[in-house]
Design brief:
With 372 residues, the protein is α+β, with helices and mostly antiparallel strands. The protein has 3 domains: 31-163, Jelly Rolls; 173-198; 203-369, no CATH class. It is 57% helix and 18% strand. The protein contains 10 helices and 11 strands. The protein has helices spanning 2-20, 133-140, 144-150, 169-175, 178-199, 205-223, 228-259, 264-280, 284-341, 348-369, and strands spanning 31-37, 44-46, 56-68, 73-75, 79-82, 85-89, 93-96, 101-106, 111-115, 128-131, 151-163. Strands 1, 3, 4, 5, 6, 8, 9 and 11 form an 8-stranded antiparallel β-sheet that branches. The longest helix has 58 residues, at 284-341.
Length: 372
């Protein structure tokens, strides 16, 4: 009974212990070479001099948070935090070199592991990490001294290193087969180029719907292959509509890039703060400067809202096009099925023409709604 009770208790505590246990550590097997606190005054924290990347694997860890007392918001190396919970990304932390490669992220423990840029032998140099106080000056309209006084840092940068390992068994095997290895590399490069040709790296809802449209169009081409003269006009129109979906996806991707890093909520907060400062301005000259800054912030918010609306419109448009392709595939399959059921029955021809007319009407309606 005692053992059973212990086992039951252990089973109940297991989830709690798992939640409290340390996250998998990217630096297991590494030696700590240096650790430094990132200053709150905008100065840079430096690691120990780096070893040669031909002899050592090295990792830079940025851990902890810093607090901006002006509004009580805390930040880690990558995210703005609300009550310790990570939210949207920010750009208040800078590194040198700026292109460190993120290899592990544990945002709930505010721990980020970076590798050095590939091909850059930085032996003898140091990695530096700093809080960019100038961004706070621009965002909050405070003086540099006010920003520095409001910052409190609990963020550290640590350098870890371990000797480079020898080649693995797989690497030695591939070294014996240079032709096969070259073929694999070329194949991988070709697939990557093909996959990124139309949509790049877009992961938005628009891109996913366009990929589904491509698959549906391929099914339509396959379904109409046996009777191309009858279906050719419809397939041509659907091909043009598919090209339109690709153009919308490309425009949506450009819009997403334009919105990247823009904090709409922060703009609204800035506008509210500036409106209060305009009301409380002690002189006409100060009020004029605040009003000019307020106008700029409002124009920026209008631009962001316009880009966001265009992105939402792109989702609606591509959704409509996807619906046209889905209904077209079903109607074409229905027409083909009627032909296959009775090859000699000429009465099926009007039905097929009626189905195709319905498809053409749907395409025309979609193009009209999209303003094409």
């Amino acid at each position: 009974m005692r053992h059973a009770a212990l086992l039951t208790m252990a089973g109940a505590l297991a989830p709690l212990l798992a939640a409290c246990s340390p996250a998998p550590d990217e630096t297991v097997g590494y030696v700590t070479l240096s650790k430094a606190r990132v200053p709150a005054d905008g100065g840079a924290a430096s690691t120990a001099p780096l070893r040669s990347d031909r002899d050592f694997e090295q990792r830079v860890l940025i851990t902890g948070t810093f607090l901006f007392g002006h509004d009580g918001t805390s930040y880690d190396a990558r995210y703005r935090c609300y009550g310790g919970v990570p939210g949207e990304p920010h750009e208040y932390v800078t590194t040198d070199p700026p292109d460190l490669v993120l290899v592990r992220e544990d945002k709930y423990r505010h721990t980020y592991a970076y590798a050095l840029p590939r091909g850059a032998d930085m032996a003898g140099r140091s990695v530096t990490v700093a809080i960019d106080t100038s961004r706070f000056v621009e965002q909050y309209f405070l003086t540099p001294s006010e920003v520095k006084a409001a910052l409190t840092s609990h963020m550290d940068v640590t350098l870890h290193a371990r000797p480079m390992r020898g080649p693995s068994a797989l690497a030695r095997l591939l070294a014996r087969w240079p032709i096969a290895l070259t073929a694999l590399v070329l194949l991988g490069s070709g697939l990557a180029a093909f996959g990124g040709l139309a949509l790049g790296r877009a992961t938005t809802d628009v891109a996913k719907r366009v990929r589904r449209i491509d698959r549906t169009f391929a099914l339509i081409e396959r379904a109409t292959a046996g009777d191309q003269p009858t279906f050719a006009p419809v397939v041509k129109q659907l091909g043009e509509l598919r090209d339109t979906a690709h153009r919308i996806a490309q425009e949506s991707e450009r819009t997403a890039k334009a919105l990247k890093g823009v904090d709409r909520q922060r703009l609204r907060v800035d506008i509210a703060q500036l409106e209060r400062r305009v009301e409380r301005a002690a002189s006409e000259e100060t009020r004029t400067e605040y009003e000019a800054a307020l106008a700029e912030r409002r124009r920026a918010l209008d631009s962001v809202d316009d880009l966001a609306a265009r992105r939402e419109l792109a989702v609606v448009r591509v959704t409509k096009i996807e619906g046209v392709f889905d209904s077209s595939l079903l109607r074409i399959r229905e027409s083909r099925l009627r032909v296959e059921e009775d090859q000699s029955d000429k009465s099926t021809i009007p039905d097929i023409l009626e189905q195709l007319a319905t498809v053409r009407d749907a395409i025309t309606q979609a193009r009209g709604e999209l303003g094409l």
